Amino acid sequence: MSRYILAVDQSTQGTKGLLFDEGGILTARADRPHRQIVDHKGWVEHDPMEILENTVAVCADVLKRAGVPSSKVVAFAISNQRETSMMWDKLTGKPIYNAIVWQCARAAEICERPAIATQAEMVQSKTGINLSPYFPAAKLCWLMENVPEAKELVAQGRLACGTIDSWLVWNLTGNHWTDYSNASRTQLFNITELNWDKELCDLFCIPMDSLPEVHMSDENYGETDIRGVLDHKVPVHGVLGDSHGALFGQNCRTPGKVKATYGTGSSVMMHIGDRPKFSENGLVTSLAWGIGGKVEYVFEGNLNYTGAVMTWLKKDVGLIATDMEATELAYTANPNDRTYFVPAFTGLGAPYWDSRATGLLTGITRTTGRAEIVRACLDCIAYQITDLVLLMSLEADTPLDELRVDGGPTASTYLMQFQADIAGVTVRIPDLQELSGMGAAYAAGMAVGLYDQDRIYDHIQHRNYLTKMGTAKQDLLYHGWRDAVRRTLSS
Questions:
Q1: CATH for 4-240?
Q2: pLDDT of 6 strictly over 90
Q3: pLDDT in the model for residue 274
Q4: What DSSP character marks residue 408?
C-alpha cells in the first residue's frame, strides 16, 4: 500500500485535513469550520483551543474517509493562516486570550503612537513590512497591555507568543518553533539578518524569550502521533504560512514567478530570489521559505477582503445565496454600468496601507440593480489583484505574462476571465485547489525522500484564461477603479 503525507491547512474560516499519496495526488479531504468571534467594534478573534481540537479531528476524519490505516502516514505538514496572533502559558498550555485574527485592526492606535509611528522607516527597513496593525507585533503589544496575565507570565518566564503554526507545533511536539515564512510576517523579525530583532521587540514591548525558535520550513519540527490519531509518531516537516505554501504548491520556485491566492483575503506573491529587495510603493518583502538549508524571498501584497466580499454578500446583505449565483448575475449585468465597490471594511491593505479607509459603493445610476452591484463586488477582487500584479512588474522590472492562481473564488468563470482581461495576463489555474496544504505537504514529502522535487508537479493539469479585452477598455475601467479607491482613503 502507498505511503502518505498527512497535512493540515489551518485557514481563517476553518481547518482542512489533507492526505497526499506517493505521487503527490490528493486522495482525501476533511473540513471543520470554527467560530468567527466578531464583536460590536468589528474586532475579530478565534478560539485557539477550538482550532487545536479541529486540527486533531480533521486528521482522524481524513484518514477514515480515505480508508487509509494510520501506519501508512510517514510525515505531517502544516500550512496556516498567517499573522493571527496569540499568547499562552508554557506551564499549563492554556491560551491567556483568544487569538487575534489577521483581519482585526484593534491595534491601529498602537501603530499611530508617536514613539512607534516615527520609527516606521526603521521597521520597514528591517522587516520589509509597512508599519501596520495587521501584523503580529502590534497585536501582541495590545495583548501585553490589555491582558494582565501576560505580564504575570513574563515575570515567571512562562509566556509564549506566536502565530497559529507555532501554537500547533507546540501542542503536537512540545517544541516552541516557527518557520522563516511565518516569522517574516510578524514585524519583529529582521529578514536580512534572519533573527528576532531586539530593537523591534523593545519598540513593541515583546519579550524576546517569549518568541519561538525560527527554523527552516522543511526541518524536522519534532515527532507527533497527533494526540493519538496515528498509531505511531511521525516527523513534522513542511511548516509554511498558507500563502507561502501556495507559492510552493504552484511551483513558483524561481525568480519572476507570480501567484495569487484567493481566499478570505488574498496574497499576491512574486519570487525574487535569494536576496531581499525592498519596495517604496507599498509592496512587502517577505521570506518565501527556508528550504534545503537556504532562504528565498518574495515581493508580496496582501488584501483584506476578496473572497470575504462574497461572504458579506451572502450573509450580511443577502444579495446572493451562493457564490455561483454571483457569477450568474455578473453575466446578466448591464455591460455599460460603471458601478465600483471598494471593500475597505477594516481599512485597505497593499499597496495603500490605510487602516482608516472605509468602504464605498460608487457610480450608481437609476439603472443600477442587483446584478450590477453583485458584479461590482466580483470585479473588486480582480481590481485589487491587478493593483499588486502591475506594481510587482514595475518594481521587479519584469514584464509579467502569467498569473498562477488558486483558491475557492477561482471557480468563478466570470471572475477569472475579468482577471485576465483587467490585468492583461494569462490566468493559469491548476486542477488541484488545495495549493496551500499541498505546498506544505510537498515540502514535507521532499524532506523525507518520498517526492522527487523535479518531477512531483508533473501530474498537475491547468486551464488557462487569456486576455480578450482591448487596452483602451482596460485603461478606462482601471482608471475608474483607481478613482473609486482614491475616494475611500482617509487622507
A1: 3.30.420.40
A2: yes
A3: 93
A4: G
